[in-house]
Amino acid sequence: MKVNGTPTRTIWLAEDGRTVEIIDQTRLPHRYEITRLETLDDACRAIKDMLVRGAPLIGATAAHGLALAMRADPSDGGLATAYDRLFATRPTAINLRWALDDLRTRLTPLPPGERATAAVARAVAICDEDVALNEAIGDHGHAIFRDLWERKGQPERFNVLTHCNAGWLATVDWGTALAPIYKAHDAGIPVHVWVDETRPRNQGASLTAWELNQHGVPHTVIVDNAGGHFMQHGMVDVCIVGTDRTTATGDVCNKIGTYLKALAARDNGVPFYVALPSPTIDWTVRDGVAEIPIEDRGPGEVQRLWGRLDSGETAWITVTPEGSPAANPAFDVTPGRLVTGLVTERGVCAASADGLSGLFPDRAAA
């Protein structure tokens, strides 16, 4: 995708071939800043403090973080320590574990002297593969949008509602739930996006809206609780979201508030799709509500907001009374029965064990 007209990814190998550069997403939308990752500590901080976020990008960053660690200490002990530290940064997104397991499996048989070079090559490959997976998701989702738009008589505005940020900022490029939106927009479908603000970190208002602005996609930011109202009044044609972990039975774990959107969509007959690359599927889990660990983040994200003041300065402000505690579960689980379909790089399937195993017989049987 492009930033100010320049093709850009969210993470890339720096010109020195050794360090890694990322977009610091905690500064968006008011500042566009590049941060350099030089050590394992830098990579762990980038993931934990959400300079990078989104399941696919977390996995890509973890891969690069392990590669950085191998430059400093390629021993078996160094590999184990780096794996454990990166694994502990965030618990919910399965892509983190997937990327770390992938690299550990490839690096363990190698002599320590070969591990750093191999780790860098694999991290770069994981990033390239993520781009290809997400573009394919965009193609399959675009076909769904076109079919819905045509069946509605090709209205002058095709309204899509999304929650949180599942665009290219959540991946290496293209995005998951936003990839079909970009494809449809570029193909001439008059897409308009209702952008949930996505409290408490406002990834919709700050990141999704910024992305759509950069690409010229018409959109409107709405408060999290407005989606059901718009659905009741026929102002949403389709919902599409991403997911940080999908069970083998089709349950999806996404940013807190997704479950409520799915309930509203079901009540109003609005199709509710979830877009995901296959590394986001956790084939070891069958009951998302009971088995997926939900990250509890600090209360400060609920109590405080970061934004731009009328003076043009950026600052944190406190919105809750002093002494009021806050709870902050970062994700919720939407049961597969509420999902119209899962949009993957291999196509679209039912959010069920049969649907997923039909698309991925090689993975389901593993």
In short:
With 366 residues, this protein is an alpha/beta fold. It has helices at residues 40-48, 55-72, 76-87, 94-107, 112-151, 179-186, 203-215, 227-232, 258-267, 288-291, 300-303, 353-359, 361-364; strands at residues 2-3, 6-7, 11-13, 20-23, 34-37, 158-162, 191-196, 219-222, 238-241, 245-247, 252-255, 272-275, 281-282, 304-308, 314-318, 331-334, 341-344, 347-349.
Integer-rounded radius of gyration: 20 Å
Integer count of domains: 2
Tell me, briefly, the overall form.
Answer: globular
Please give the alpha-carbon distance between the first and last residues.
35 Å
Low-confidence stretches: none
| CATH topology (level 3) name of the largest domain | Rossmann fold
Spatial strand sequence of the major β-sheet? 8-7-6-9-12-17-18
Q: Report strand %.
A: 15-25%
Report the CATH superfamily of the largest domain: Translation initiation factor eif-2b, domain 2
CATH class of the largest domain: Alpha Beta
Report the sheet with the most strands, covering strand number, pairing sense and barrel closure. 7 strands, mixed
Helical content stands at 40-55%
**Overall mean pLDDT:** 96
CATH architecture of the largest domain: 3-Layer(aba) Sandwich
The number of E-state strands comes to 18
Number of helical stretches of at least 4 residues: 13
InterPro entries: IF-2B-related, IF-M1Pi, IF_2B-like_C, Initiation_fac_2B_a/b/d, M1Pi_N, NagB/RpiA_transferase-like
Catalytic activity: 5-(methylsulfanyl)-alpha-D-ribose 1-phosphate = 5-(methylsulfanyl)-D-ribulose 1-phosphate; 5-deoxy-alpha-D-ribose 1-phosphate = 5-deoxy-D-ribulose 1-phosphate
Pathway: Amino-acid biosynthesis; L-methionine biosynthesis via salvage pathway; L-methionine from S-methyl-5-thio-alpha-D-ribose 1-phosphate: step 1/6
Protein name: Methylthioribose-1-phosphate isomerase
